[in-house]
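Bug report

Summary: structure tokens for NADP-dependent malic enzyme differ between web form and batch submission.
Environment: batch mode, default settings.
Steps: 1) Submit the sequence below via batch. 2) Compare with the web form result.

Sequence submitted:
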Amino acid sequence: MADDLRDSALQYHRFPRPGKLAIQATKPMASQRDLSLAYSPGVAAACEEIERDPLQAAEYTARGNLVAVVSNGTAVLGLGAIGALASKPVMEGKAVLFKKFADVDVFDIEIEERDPDKLIEIIAGLEATFGGINLEDIKAPECFEIERRLRERMKIPVFHDDQHGTAIVAGAALLNGLRVVGKELGDIRLVCNGAGSAALACLDLAVSLGVRRENILVCDRSGVVHTERTDDMDPYKARYAAATEARTLADAIEGADVFFGLSAGGALKPEMVATMADRPLILAMANPIPEIMPEEAKAIRPDAVIATGRSDYPNQVNNVLCFPFIFRGALDCGATTINEEMKLATVKAIADMATTTVPETVAVAYGGQALTFGPDYILPKPFDPRLIDTIPPAVAKAAMDSGVATRPIADLEAYARSLSRLVYRSGNVMEPVFERARQNPLRLLYAEGEDERVLRAMEVCVSQHYAKPVLIGRRKVIEARIEELGLPVRAGVDFELIDARDYPDCSTLASEYHQLMGRRGVHPEAAEKRVRSRSTILASLLLRRGEVDAVIAGPVGTYHEHLDLVLDVIGLREGVSTPAALQLLILERATLFIADPFVNYDPDASQIAEITLLAAEQVRRFGITPRAALVSHSNFGSSDFASAVKMRDALALIRERNPDLVVDGEMQADSALSMGVRGRILPGSLLEGEANLLIMPNLDAANIAFTALKVLGNGVSVGPILLGAAKPVHVLNRTVTARGIANMSAFAVVEAQTHR
């Protein structure tokens, strides 16, 4: 691990408070009555109901949404047997993924016990606390026995993700990969390199799907697993021992249709791939370096379909496509186990999803990337919002059909709709933006290149390939600060540096600036001085000229100071009369866009309408369908104060200009954010679901709402996003963090991609 990444990771885990998890109460505790309901004497009522019917624990406690991620730290990915305590950051990370992707609560439980019998006893004793058990990073072959005995003993789902999560996603890739190459499961020859828990689970599921066991060859560090072999064997591996003359991977792979790699980077050589059957399917799943890099395989076999565990290549085999969602479905129907039927239902749901037409919002989020079923798209993207309302219903149905659901779901369609509300509550909204930026990183200029936050954000953009950075600033200052901060970047190699004091085009740019500003009192000498001394002006001129693709201005100085300088040079887009700002706020339970917290003090109805339409356009860049609420102190005509009338008038203008936009108002914030509240006030409201775009009546309301929510909700903000400018330029405020600048950098690149 690079030193800079290591240091950043340590800082991430340590601040602002140690670890990645916290416990939060879900009920108010504001009065003596609240206390009497939560604890003595009121809590006795819930206890009595559960004693009468144990299934009521899911109704009166958190158990129905609570999973234990359990490990003894004997096989931590990439680290080995590091022990229970050292494995805790990994388990906390797994807990975060459960919460972020499927709103499943998790306790991570690290147990310092390597005796399988004792470990089983400890885990089994947790059944009263949890609705499910996710076993993690337990070494083979003990993990097989541990899981088997716990499944037999416990009446809640027990799932070893290292085995079955990998197997489910690999199974979906196998189904779709064979669809692409036109081969049948029962006809293929499959070679697997690796014989650990994940590999054997992948093979078992492949057999369940229809691959013939006699057509499978397994290799490990000792070579082919064959019937005459005695060294380095165990009963689990022996199930796949084959009567064969092959002794090496090179021998086994000749003529194979499918390769499963769950071993080590570089294990599959190009010359081996050359001997595979026509149109081979290669699942090289070792991380972080696959058994063969896709470009190596494609160079020798252009007809191959390739999947890896990496996010920077097509067809990522990622467990996150499975484990949050299979547990979501299992918990919601009260499944007593995760059986084969539920696993196969998950495989089919993932596979079928990749073959369907990708919704416009997903396509937009991934920047027009070819998300059409084929060689480079056999698996859904991990951040596809359809996963949450596709997989859990399939899992729940399979549980009900197989008789293991204790709380059957009567209306699966309504259940799916309820799950869709979890989409974008997770904070995952930025990931498609990052991925899209990586596809085509453009020239992004930072006007305040000497600022520490800008330098740190620039380094992230370089390491993550979001952009090709250009910095304005004094060379010696920037180089000294980079050295002081220990950033692994160099001017002229990783980024371009423009020092206005010796930049050869400054005089030409000053002349262009004078042409723009000469009739506003700026004489030629002043123009020259401004261009050399005001980096925002220089940055804007370079953007106007097309020397760079996007600009980030600020965060030094005042917002309006930078905004005025930018608009003097860049101007507004054709047809736009009102610039504005949009702020994205990522909270634990919601993702909100708020307009306009920085630019327009008291916009009129026409300006409100224009701001709404511009904001909705930007919301779509995130792959989100905008649902706009015109927010006021008034609820649907309850007040006739001027500010309320203004919002009603704006609604009429919006509907006239864009009748397809989901928007309603004027309404109070609770009506906008709660379907229950809004339904009681105006059941016929045209706003569908919870609003995700709040249009405020004035700057005070917008700024107060944004800043209060950010602090109280511990939110992550992205922005301000400048609306209406003729070119991709964004002005940041003084409180922005390095992370905020990195987020806006990726967004600015994505916006610039659509302007080319």
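Above is the batch result. After comparison, the two runs are identical; trailing whitespace caused the diff. The chain is about 45% helix and 15% strand. The chain has five domains: 3-156, 164-317, 320-423, 433-570, 580-724.
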